[in-house]
Design a protein that fits this description.
Arc Repressor Mutant, subunit A; 6 helices; three-stranded antiparallel sheet; 5 strands
């Protein structure tokens, strides 16, 4: 195994031991990649995300969206001109850079279901 030079990986004020740790710190967890997957095709309102992810709790969805926004992955736009309040979420440029990764994760999931599913 080739030994790699240890270098610091710092993102948004947090230090990570390696590049994969940084990536998983930003998109890891049960819901972040799911949120990003649903935002690949464009902007969605909060309730549209809730409907697309019926098993996530409102609290968890709100917290994960907030974290993705803090990390600069998701943009939250609030429309206050007329009631009711409208909030839309989109991927930022940084978030868009994750599309190939998120799509690869989705493709791998499809591959597993097609080739290794117990329901075959």
């Amino acid at each position: 195994m080739v030994e790699k030079e240890q270098k610091r990986h710092i993102f948004n004020g947090k230090e990570y031991p390696c590049c994969t740790s940084l990536t998983m710190g930003v998109i890891g967890g049960k819901w972040k990649t799911v949120i990003l997957f649903h935002l690949i095709d464009g902007k969605l309102r909060y309730n549209e995300l809730r409907k697309a992810m019926p098993t996530v709790t409102e609290r968890t969805l709100s917290l994960q969206l907030k974290k993705l926004e803090e990390d600069g992955i998701v943009h939250r736009k609030v429309y206050t001109k007329k009631a009711p309040l409208k909030v839309e979420y989109t991927l930022t440029k940084l978030g868009e850079s994750l599309i190939p990764l998120i799509q690869s994760i989705a493709n791998w999931g499809d591959f597993i279901v097609a080739n290794y599913s117990e329901e075959k």
